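Researcher: Batch entry, complex prediction.
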Amino acid sequence: MDTSIVKKIEIDKNHIENFPLETEEGTKRAKEKYHIAQVEQRNSYVQKEIEIFECHKKNVEEEMQKRLKLRMPNDKSDYFSVKEKEVSTLLNNVKFNSNISNSFKLNLDFILAKINEETSLEELNDLILDFINKFREFGINLTIDDFKYSMFTEEYMMAFLEDDSNKSKEVFDNIYYSCPDLKMHIKMNLLDIINKYDKELSSYVEKLKSTEEFSELINKYSLERANLDEEVMRDEYTNLNSFLNKDLIIANYLDDNQTLIKTYNDLCIGGDYNSLSIEDKDKFNVEINSLFGVLNELSTYYKFLPIITNLLERYKDKATIKGTYSSKKKEYDKENSIREKLYKNYLKANGIGFLAKKKPLKIKNIKLKMNEQVRKLITLRDELLDLEITSKICELDETASIYDFFYRGLSSFEYLEKMFSDKELFSDSLEDNIDAYFKYLYSPNNYFIRKTNAFSEDDIATVIADKYKLLGIAVNSEEISSETISEKIKNIEFVKKVQSIDNSEISREFIDNMCKMNEIVKSLEVNNEQ
Amino acid sequence: MDNTLELEKCSDEYLLTLYDIINKHLKYLNDSIIEIADEEEVEEEKESE
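Model: Structure tokens for the complex:
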């Protein structure tokens, strides 16, 4: 401590406390006068000192303001957003080179998923427009010839393509009573278009594919994803700001904090982290880092557990599934050709050529049959998709890992769509769930799902807990069940945050001092505003 | 007494401690000021007694 200021304070105190304020000499009036004069003199001294110390205070405050600006680490937000885009591009490359369908890769399935019984007319029109625009992006201009799935879709789309919303509303109202399933007819028509242009879509996807080997792509993505996550976690600017903004409280992260001591001790076998040797502390930190990844993986595994349960249930059909998909496909194709025939008959009933004569009764009958036929096709398609995913699952054998099952699940968008539509099991939107599922499968932290046999009856939480116990980390299976895991992750995230700061260019003590200075400067700004 | 402090060179901890000491001393100084009752008030007090 600067001795000059401490000395000055001592002198001040000494001077003020020993300042004579009373006298024994003279009359009462004289004594009073003496007292007032001395008080005034002492007050004047104190006032002068106040001015000096207010000046010191101001200088210290200005120095703090200066330090807050000068010592603020570089804001790397721009760098991180560029990096994030690069990693997203890599993930996109993985997506385009993976086993998912073209319509999944090109996001057409998301459009189709939004067409259901609840879709409003306005939403339906927006979705059709999105679909047409997407095809335009692929270099395919859809015309009325593409919308002849049924006489109803043709009629509706004629009005739609005229781009007159009043007319299409009028047509919809007209068609509705003869075809209450119009929305589903349109959905089936869009699916039909995807099949019709399969070659064109494939060649478009081919252009977007990376030339790299799929395994190399995944490794590259996993590495970049993990590196970027680490870099962000260690980032000095982000960390300091989260404490300055009070998202995190620095006092909880200092070595003498009881919560920190307890968190470390609770995670350490033996219950005393500080008694570990430096070497053991290093090992502990490495294993905590690894456990953090595994627990996040386990937490997402719990989220998608209904899917694995469902897929394992489907595997039970392995002995009987053979041939069922292909015979259902034949049945579907046969019924689809009946639909096409019905449409042709409808055209004939309307008459062809100059002397054409309409046959109203026949037209009415064909329309009724078309409704029935499309309904049949919708049901058959659902059955076909169900058999398709079961067949794909049944191609696996007893050696399959959890990952193999999840990966097969990814091959059917409709299957995932159906599973994720159960809002009791999955609360997020379809897009978010699909995105999370995709990222989970290609996550750099896929430790156990790739290695664990899908048919193993071992409790995964127990297997993980036992492994980390051997490595010196105190974790038990009850703490990492689906109900309790988030709390454990929070504790480990806390330790990981301490590690990340310690591995960065700034210390926790530096953050503590910056937070204290920031509080002082902020309170000054508030006072100035007032 | 030199009123300037060489703040640039001091550590953050030092700066914060210094700030604390200055604030405490300022409080001490402010508490040390004695209010002087003006003569009229003194007279009034005497009369009421």
